[in-house]
Design brief:
This protein is α/β, with parallel strands linked by helices. The chain is built from 10 helices and 14 strands. The chain folds into 2 domains: about 220 residues, Spore Coat Polysaccharide Biosynthesis Protein SpsA, Chain A (Alpha-Beta Complex); about 80 residues.
Length: about 325
Protein backbone atom coordinates (compact mmCIF):
# COMPACT_ATOMS: atom_id res chain seq x y z
CA UNK A 1 0.00 0.00 0.00
CA UNK A 2 1.35 3.41 -0.94
CA UNK A 3 -0.66 5.70 1.35
CA UNK A 4 -2.39 5.01 4.66
CA UNK A 5 -4.90 7.67 5.72
CA UNK A 6 -5.18 7.13 9.46
CA UNK A 7 -7.86 8.91 11.48
CA UNK A 8 -7.36 8.82 15.24
CA UNK A 9 -10.74 8.70 16.94
CA UNK A 10 -11.66 9.26 20.57
CA UNK A 11 -15.38 9.44 21.32
CA UNK A 12 -15.86 11.12 17.96
CA UNK A 13 -18.95 9.40 16.58
CA UNK A 14 -20.54 12.73 15.45
CA UNK A 15 -17.36 13.76 13.62
CA UNK A 16 -17.00 10.37 11.94
CA UNK A 17 -20.60 10.47 10.80
CA UNK A 18 -20.14 13.97 9.41
CA UNK A 19 -16.68 13.82 7.80
CA UNK A 20 -15.75 10.21 7.08
CA UNK A 21 -17.93 10.09 3.92
CA UNK A 22 -15.75 12.71 2.20
CA UNK A 23 -12.57 10.84 3.13
CA UNK A 24 -13.86 7.51 1.84
CA UNK A 25 -15.29 9.07 -1.33
CA UNK A 26 -11.98 10.79 -2.12
CA UNK A 27 -9.67 7.88 -1.32
CA UNK A 28 -7.46 7.01 -4.29
CA UNK A 29 -6.95 3.44 -5.51
CA UNK A 30 -3.49 3.14 -3.93
CA UNK A 31 -4.61 4.46 -0.53
CA UNK A 32 -6.45 2.95 2.41
CA UNK A 33 -8.54 4.63 5.11
CA UNK A 34 -7.85 3.28 8.60
CA UNK A 35 -9.52 4.26 11.87
CA UNK A 36 -7.37 4.08 14.98
CA UNK A 37 -9.62 4.16 18.03
CA UNK A 38 -8.12 5.61 21.20
CA UNK A 39 -10.19 3.60 23.68
CA UNK A 40 -13.49 5.32 22.92
CA UNK A 41 -16.36 4.89 25.36
CA UNK A 42 -19.09 6.16 23.02
CA UNK A 43 -20.64 4.18 20.19
CA UNK A 44 -17.94 5.01 17.63
CA UNK A 45 -16.96 1.39 17.02
CA UNK A 46 -20.56 0.26 16.69
CA UNK A 47 -21.21 3.05 14.18
CA UNK A 48 -18.18 2.04 12.12
CA UNK A 49 -19.10 -1.64 12.20
CA UNK A 50 -22.60 -0.95 10.91
CA UNK A 51 -21.84 1.79 8.36
CA UNK A 52 -18.24 1.07 7.26
CA UNK A 53 -17.77 -2.68 7.79
CA UNK A 54 -14.89 -2.90 5.29
CA UNK A 55 -12.71 -0.24 6.90
CA UNK A 56 -9.75 -1.45 8.92
CA UNK A 57 -10.04 -0.59 12.62
CA UNK A 58 -7.08 -0.48 15.00
CA UNK A 59 -8.58 -0.58 18.48
CA UNK A 60 -6.29 0.71 21.24
CA UNK A 61 -7.06 -0.28 24.80
CA UNK A 62 -7.22 3.27 26.19
CA UNK A 63 -6.76 6.94 25.30
CA UNK A 64 -3.05 7.46 24.62
CA UNK A 65 -3.53 11.01 23.37
CA UNK A 66 -2.79 12.25 19.89
CA UNK A 67 0.96 11.63 19.99
CA UNK A 68 1.28 8.14 21.43
CA UNK A 69 -2.06 7.11 19.95
CA UNK A 70 -0.60 7.62 16.50
CA UNK A 71 2.70 6.01 17.48
CA UNK A 72 0.91 2.84 18.57
CA UNK A 73 -1.45 2.80 15.60
CA UNK A 74 1.16 3.43 12.91
CA UNK A 75 3.38 0.70 14.35
CA UNK A 76 0.69 -1.63 12.97
CA UNK A 77 0.53 -0.03 9.50
CA UNK A 78 2.74 -0.72 6.51
CA UNK A 79 2.73 1.98 3.83
CA UNK A 80 5.10 4.31 2.02
CA UNK A 81 3.30 7.39 3.31
CA UNK A 82 1.20 8.01 6.41
CA UNK A 83 -1.50 10.68 6.47
CA UNK A 84 -2.42 11.70 10.01
CA UNK A 85 -5.90 13.12 9.50
CA UNK A 86 -8.11 14.69 12.15
CA UNK A 87 -11.65 13.36 12.37
CA UNK A 88 -13.09 16.86 11.77
CA UNK A 89 -11.61 17.41 8.30
CA UNK A 90 -13.49 17.49 5.00
CA UNK A 91 -11.20 16.54 2.12
CA UNK A 92 -11.40 17.35 -1.60
CA UNK A 93 -10.92 15.30 -4.78
CA UNK A 94 -7.32 14.35 -5.49
CA UNK A 95 -6.03 15.78 -2.23
CA UNK A 96 -3.68 12.88 -1.42
CA UNK A 97 -2.43 12.36 -4.97
CA UNK A 98 -1.16 15.92 -5.27
CA UNK A 99 0.75 15.92 -1.99
CA UNK A 100 2.14 12.41 -2.49
CA UNK A 101 3.37 13.34 -5.98
CA UNK A 102 5.24 16.25 -4.45
CA UNK A 103 6.88 13.97 -1.89
CA UNK A 104 7.65 11.33 -4.53
CA UNK A 105 9.67 13.95 -6.42
CA UNK A 106 12.06 14.59 -3.52
CA UNK A 107 13.00 11.90 -0.96
CA UNK A 108 14.28 14.65 1.37
CA UNK A 109 10.72 15.79 2.07
CA UNK A 110 9.85 14.14 5.37
CA UNK A 111 6.48 15.81 5.89
CA UNK A 112 4.02 17.96 3.98
CA UNK A 113 0.59 19.52 4.28
CA UNK A 114 -2.20 20.77 2.01
CA UNK A 115 -3.73 24.20 2.44
CA UNK A 116 -6.01 24.28 5.48
CA UNK A 117 -9.19 26.36 5.35
CA UNK A 118 -11.98 26.83 7.90
CA UNK A 119 -14.94 24.50 7.50
CA UNK A 120 -17.55 27.08 8.54
CA UNK A 121 -15.95 30.09 6.80
CA UNK A 122 -14.58 28.42 3.73
CA UNK A 123 -12.83 31.44 2.29
CA UNK A 124 -10.59 31.82 5.35
CA UNK A 125 -7.48 30.01 6.50
CA UNK A 126 -7.81 27.66 9.46
CA UNK A 127 -6.04 28.29 12.74
CA UNK A 128 -4.25 24.95 13.05
CA UNK A 129 -2.15 25.16 9.89
CA UNK A 130 -3.16 27.72 7.29
CA UNK A 131 -0.72 27.57 4.39
CA UNK A 132 2.18 26.19 6.42
CA UNK A 133 3.68 26.78 9.86
CA UNK A 134 6.66 28.66 11.30
CA UNK A 135 8.08 29.59 14.68
CA UNK A 136 9.84 32.76 15.76
CA UNK A 137 13.21 32.95 17.50
CA UNK A 138 11.55 32.31 20.88
CA UNK A 139 9.55 29.32 19.73
CA UNK A 140 6.12 30.89 19.29
CA UNK A 141 4.28 29.18 16.41
CA UNK A 142 2.32 30.92 13.67
CA UNK A 143 1.20 30.18 10.11
CA UNK A 144 0.94 31.75 6.73
CA UNK A 145 -2.63 32.96 6.97
CA UNK A 146 -2.83 33.00 10.79
CA UNK A 147 -0.80 34.88 13.38
CA UNK A 148 -2.12 34.49 16.93
CA UNK A 149 -5.88 35.07 16.58
CA UNK A 150 -5.76 37.05 13.33
CA UNK A 151 -6.99 34.76 10.56
CA UNK A 152 -6.71 35.96 6.97
CA UNK A 153 -9.11 35.54 4.10
CA UNK A 154 -7.62 33.31 1.42
CA UNK A 155 -7.25 35.44 -1.68
CA UNK A 156 -4.57 33.28 -3.24
CA UNK A 157 -1.77 35.22 -1.53
CA UNK A 158 -0.09 31.99 -0.41
CA UNK A 159 -0.82 29.85 -3.43
CA UNK A 160 2.50 28.11 -3.96
CA UNK A 161 4.60 25.18 -2.82
CA UNK A 162 7.38 26.07 -0.41
CA UNK A 163 9.46 24.94 2.51
CA UNK A 164 7.97 25.73 5.92
CA UNK A 165 9.09 25.02 9.45
CA UNK A 166 6.22 22.75 10.42
CA UNK A 167 3.24 21.06 8.80
CA UNK A 168 -0.12 20.85 10.52
CA UNK A 169 -1.08 17.77 12.50
CA UNK A 170 -4.65 18.14 11.24
CA UNK A 171 -3.66 16.74 7.82
CA UNK A 172 -0.04 15.66 8.15
CA UNK A 173 1.59 13.69 5.34
CA UNK A 174 4.70 11.84 6.56
CA UNK A 175 7.19 9.65 4.75
CA UNK A 176 7.05 6.35 6.65
CA UNK A 177 10.82 5.81 6.51
CA UNK A 178 11.43 9.23 8.08
CA UNK A 179 8.75 8.54 10.72
CA UNK A 180 10.53 5.34 11.72
CA UNK A 181 13.97 6.96 11.64
CA UNK A 182 12.79 9.73 13.98
CA UNK A 183 10.81 7.42 16.26
CA UNK A 184 7.44 9.00 15.44
CA UNK A 185 5.90 11.66 17.63
CA UNK A 186 7.04 12.32 21.18
CA UNK A 187 4.49 10.29 23.12
CA UNK A 188 5.12 12.25 26.32
CA UNK A 189 3.56 15.33 24.71
CA UNK A 190 0.11 13.62 24.72
CA UNK A 191 -1.30 16.37 22.47
CA UNK A 192 -0.35 19.81 21.11
CA UNK A 193 3.01 20.88 19.64
CA UNK A 194 3.91 17.27 18.83
CA UNK A 195 3.85 17.86 15.07
CA UNK A 196 6.06 20.96 15.41
CA UNK A 197 8.52 18.97 17.50
CA UNK A 198 8.49 16.17 14.92
CA UNK A 199 9.14 18.57 12.05
CA UNK A 200 11.94 20.27 13.99
CA UNK A 201 13.59 16.92 14.65
CA UNK A 202 13.25 16.11 10.96
CA UNK A 203 14.90 19.41 10.06
CA UNK A 204 17.73 18.61 12.47
CA UNK A 205 18.33 15.50 10.31
CA UNK A 206 18.41 17.55 7.11
CA UNK A 207 14.89 16.79 5.90
CA UNK A 208 12.54 19.27 4.25
CA UNK A 209 9.03 20.18 5.43
CA UNK A 210 6.73 21.48 2.70
CA UNK A 211 3.30 23.11 2.34
CA UNK A 212 1.45 23.13 -0.97
CA UNK A 213 -1.67 24.91 -2.16
CA UNK A 214 -2.18 22.31 -4.90
CA UNK A 215 -4.42 20.44 -2.45
CA UNK A 216 -6.75 21.80 0.21
CA UNK A 217 -8.93 20.52 3.03
CA UNK A 218 -11.47 22.11 5.37
CA UNK A 219 -11.01 21.80 9.12
CA UNK A 220 -13.43 22.45 11.97
CA UNK A 221 -10.77 22.55 14.73
CA UNK A 222 -11.03 22.42 18.52
CA UNK A 223 -13.22 19.35 18.51
CA UNK A 224 -11.47 17.42 21.28
CA UNK A 225 -10.42 20.18 23.67
CA UNK A 226 -12.18 23.56 23.67
CA UNK A 227 -10.04 26.61 23.09
CA UNK A 228 -10.51 27.85 26.66
CA UNK A 229 -9.56 24.53 28.28
CA UNK A 230 -6.99 24.90 31.10
CA UNK A 231 -5.70 21.42 30.22
CA UNK A 232 -5.08 22.61 26.66
CA UNK A 233 -3.22 25.63 28.05
CA UNK A 234 -1.13 23.35 30.25
CA UNK A 235 -0.21 21.10 27.32
CA UNK A 236 0.70 24.02 25.08
CA UNK A 237 2.94 25.76 27.63
CA UNK A 238 4.61 22.54 28.81
CA UNK A 239 5.16 21.06 25.38
CA UNK A 240 6.48 24.29 23.91
CA UNK A 241 9.20 24.46 26.58
CA UNK A 242 9.98 20.77 26.13
CA UNK A 243 10.23 21.21 22.35
CA UNK A 244 12.63 24.14 22.75
CA UNK A 245 14.77 22.24 25.24
CA UNK A 246 15.05 19.26 22.89
CA UNK A 247 15.77 21.13 19.67
CA UNK A 248 17.49 24.48 20.24
CA UNK A 249 21.21 24.66 19.40
CA UNK A 250 23.56 24.89 22.38
CA UNK A 251 24.35 28.56 21.85
CA UNK A 252 20.68 29.57 22.15
CA UNK A 253 19.25 27.03 24.56
CA UNK A 254 19.59 28.56 28.02
CA UNK A 255 18.99 32.16 26.97
CA UNK A 256 15.76 31.30 25.15
CA UNK A 257 14.47 29.01 27.91
CA UNK A 258 15.06 31.67 30.58
CA UNK A 259 13.30 34.32 28.54
CA UNK A 260 10.39 32.05 27.69
CA UNK A 261 9.84 31.21 31.35
CA UNK A 262 9.62 34.93 32.13
CA UNK A 263 7.21 35.51 29.24
CA UNK A 264 5.12 32.53 30.32
CA UNK A 265 4.69 34.05 33.77
CA UNK A 266 3.69 37.36 32.25
CA UNK A 267 1.02 35.44 30.33
CA UNK A 268 0.00 33.62 33.52
CA UNK A 269 -0.56 36.85 35.45
CA UNK A 270 -2.46 38.22 32.47
CA UNK A 271 -4.78 35.22 32.81
CA UNK A 272 -5.15 35.99 36.51
CA UNK A 273 -6.00 39.64 35.81
CA UNK A 274 -8.77 38.41 33.50
CA UNK A 275 -10.16 36.17 36.23
CA UNK A 276 -8.99 32.99 34.48
CA UNK A 277 -7.78 31.13 37.55
CA UNK A 278 -7.75 27.78 35.78
CA UNK A 279 -5.49 29.13 33.02
CA UNK A 280 -3.16 30.67 35.60
CA UNK A 281 -2.84 27.34 37.42
CA UNK A 282 -2.30 25.59 34.08
CA UNK A 283 0.89 27.60 33.48
CA UNK A 284 2.14 26.69 36.96
CA UNK A 285 1.46 22.99 36.31
CA UNK A 286 3.13 23.21 32.89
CA UNK A 287 6.33 24.66 34.37
CA UNK A 288 6.37 22.14 37.20
CA UNK A 289 6.10 19.27 34.74
CA UNK A 290 8.74 20.79 32.46
CA UNK A 291 11.23 20.94 35.33
CA UNK A 292 10.36 17.35 36.28
CA UNK A 293 10.98 16.31 32.68
CA UNK A 294 14.44 17.89 32.38
CA UNK A 295 16.50 14.72 32.97
CA UNK A 296 14.48 12.89 30.30
CA UNK A 297 14.66 15.88 27.97
CA UNK A 298 18.45 15.96 28.26
CA UNK A 299 18.52 12.34 27.10
CA UNK A 300 16.19 13.13 24.20
CA UNK A 301 18.33 16.12 23.29
CA UNK A 302 21.37 13.86 23.00
CA UNK A 303 19.49 11.79 20.42
CA UNK A 304 18.19 14.82 18.51
CA UNK A 305 21.65 16.46 18.18
CA UNK A 306 20.26 19.97 17.55
CA UNK A 307 21.54 21.94 14.58
CA UNK A 308 20.90 25.48 13.27
CA UNK A 309 17.97 25.20 10.84
CA UNK A 310 16.19 27.52 8.44
CA UNK A 311 12.61 28.83 8.35
CA UNK A 312 12.76 30.27 11.88
CA UNK A 313 11.56 33.87 11.96
CA UNK A 314 14.54 35.89 13.25
CA UNK A 315 12.49 38.34 15.31
CA UNK A 316 9.92 38.16 18.08
CA UNK A 317 6.44 37.59 16.69
CA UNK A 318 5.06 39.01 19.97
CA UNK A 319 6.78 42.34 19.32
CA UNK A 320 5.88 42.40 15.63
CA UNK A 321 2.23 41.59 16.26
CA UNK A 322 1.41 43.47 19.47
CA UNK A 323 3.75 46.48 19.30
CA UNK A 324 4.33 47.03 15.58
CA UNK A 325 0.88 45.99 14.40
CA UNK A 326 2.05 43.44 11.87
CA UNK A 327 -0.89 41.07 11.79
CA UNK A 328 -0.22 39.06 8.63
CA UNK A 329 2.64 36.93 7.39
CA UNK A 330 3.41 39.26 4.50
CA UNK A 331 3.82 42.24 6.83
CA UNK A 332 6.69 40.65 8.70
CA UNK A 333 10.04 42.27 7.97
CA UNK A 334 12.78 40.16 6.34
CA UNK A 335 10.26 37.45 5.65
CA UNK A 336 8.76 36.73 2.27
Amino acid sequence: MKTAIVILNWNGRPMLERFLPSVVANCSDDAEVIIADNGSTDDSLEFLASHYPTLRIIALDRNYGFADGYNRALAQVEAEYYVLLNDDVEVTPGWTDKVVALMDADPQIAAAQPKLRMYDQRDRFEYAGGAGGYIDKLGYPFCRGRIFNTIEQDNGQYDDTRDVFWATGAALFVRASAWKELGGLDGDFFAHMEEIDFCWRARNRGYRIVATSDAQVFHVGGGTLPKSSPFKTQLNFRNNLAMLYKNLPDNRLHRVIRLRIVLDWIAAFSFLAQGKWGEFCAVFKAHRQFHQWRPALRAKRAVVKPQPVSCIYPRSILVEYHLRGRKTFRQLEHWD
